[in-house]
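It is worth pausing here to work through a concrete case rather than discussing structure prediction in the abstract. The textbook approach is simple: state the sequence, then state the predicted structure, then interpret. We follow exactly that order.
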Amino acid sequence: MGEKKNEMKFTILFSSANPDHVFAANKLNSQSRNNKANYVAQAIRFHEDNSVLNRSVIEKAVMDILSKNNASMQVPSAEKDVTEELDEILKEKINSSLQIFKRCN
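Step two, the predicted structure:
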């Protein structure tokens, strides 16, 4: 394929069968004509800057959330292995936290 005539110009066709594409198209269509390029540029910059999360940042966030919710954690019953039940509770709390994080982004 030859070189582009204008490196700064793009044409994008979204698929109406892909919910992510429909969402993106709706967001772009809600932007003013002069703001679409800026919106896309900011979204790409944000994605690139935040695509690799530092493990220590994730661990700290999870521990902060768990400590805030510590009062709601139940004491394991004597019938179950304590470690197994705590692992299950932690998995639930982490999953819940991740769902909240996804909705915020």
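Step three, interpretation. The longest helix spans residues 82-104. Residues 11 and 68 are 47 Å apart (CA to CA).
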